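Meet the record:
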Amino acid sequence: MSETRPNNSVLSPIGFLTRSANLYSERTAIVYGSLRRSWSELHRRCCRLAAALIELQVRRGDVVSILSPNTPAMIEAHFAVPMIAAILNAVNTRLDPASMAYILSHSESRIFLVDQDYLEVASEALRLLPASDRPFVIWISDDQSPGRCPQGEVEYEQLFVAASAVPVLPLISDEQDPIALNYTSGTTGRPKGVLYHHRGAYLNAIDNILTWSIPKAAVFLWTLPMFHCNGWCFPWSITAVGGTHVCLRSVSAQSILAELKSHPITHLCGAPVVMGMIVEAQMERLERPVAFATAGSPPPVPILREMSGLDSK
């Protein structure tokens, strides 16, 4: 069969957001400290952010970079940017200014969304760039990081006030279009860029659900950095099942323990070091099973044994 419109549907994880907003409109999509947002609210904000980016002259194939911890803004960027066929570049927050400047220049980033926690390193990276290579900067702040936007520059929440309230329809026409650009780090030589396309992100997100048997309304704790391979595509996976994203600005034994006690967490991810944090916190046995996915290096057997004792699988 030919790939005519009646026979072909573009595979993109952007559709997961629209689906969850329609099916689970009042279900909680985002938890972040005292903040709660429903799926309908998240969808509306992503559409407004997409509209704001269009007004800032972001076009198909342009790169929008973001430097942020695991905050609601990071989730929103994973949908709003590709919604307009632009490419998301989630920058490693642990990089030095020179590496960051190289990535911004090499990617030809048009917009740079920066959380206030990284004002110093981002400002230094921007100073290293010639004026012609500097992206337009938008500063992100919230109740957990209430820094002041540099004078004369744009604050993230202002975008939602000025942007059109008319929903932005996804502008994806080709599932082979790039959705995200990621850069290597911790290797010899300069960072190297790797592109995901919409189809690949969609399939990987679905694979996460099938492999891990993620149920509807899963509650996912964001201990895995979203700059790391787009959080292994879990921003899209959890959205597909209408789950809840529990955002975590700072990952520590105390913050993980607090979230596990406060919310019915079902899943979380991270390197073995995160498992070590949980074990060292001497946490009591959990009231319910929690699934933990790890990668990067094999976790030590004693750590696995301790995690199993907490009813983690």
Q: What stands out?
A: The CA atoms of residues 20 and 67 lie 26 Å apart. Residues 39-55 form the longest helix (17 residues).
